[in-house]
Amino acid sequence: MVDIHTHILFGLDDGAESLDMSVAMAEMAIEDGITHIVGTPHAHPNHDFIPELVKERRDELQSRFEGRLTFATGCDFHLSFENLQSIRLYPERYTVNQKNYLLVEFADFSIPPSMDQALHDLQLAGLQPIITHPERNPLIRVKADRLFRWIRQGCYVQVTAQSLLGKFGRSAKESAEEWLDAGAVHFLASDAHNVTTRPPILSSAFSYLRKAHGEEVARALLVENPLAAFEGRPLPFVPQLAEDAGLSPGATPVRKKKRFWIF
Ligand SMILES: [Fe+2]
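Above: query sequence and fe (ii) ion SMILES. Below: predicted holo structure tokens.
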């Protein structure tokens, strides 16, 4: 499996605190069947984002795990004015493995209308935004029509693996399941921060997905699509978005019908 969203690089944000913790997380990921992992520290006003340091930490870990686990860098990109200015000039500082996919996170307390334009501008700059864990964001959960609009506009969606298993509460789990049914999920990732409460574990979500949606969907969301993002290729598996998704005002669409997947 390929994990495109983790905080495995130590000493950069609220993820791994030490090299030892990064190493323990990497061992856990390998044990779980993860072959590629992206360290995506927050590029957020609360944390200094220093691209040189991010790369240094990645290289340090890569040298210890050569041949066992492939590391790349990216970030959890906050749509602040400063970040948006900077990414125009230096996209490779922020994108997954310095290709064209970008993890974008939204604040829990406010998503101003200007964010729609910000996403569009990123796309015009040739970047492919991936909205991270919208199922954990109460603002997006209650106004899912916005999320669906972003998807129609060409954005992708990454759900946290543990959300599907109920570790982020019932609302997050229900939204994740509804959006899976609606064809609105393109990636699962661990968003790992440590080895205890937020571990780099994807296998349990893989089993869950395989049971609920079949092997092909599990592979699409945990192997094929994330690998394509890692390598900067178009996504091989894009589900058809439910036609009525988000169109009824204020309601999260529920489609129990299995979605048709375009392979
Ligand atoms: Fe994250």
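The pocket of fe (ii) ion is lined by residues 5, 7, 76, 191 (CB under 6 Å).
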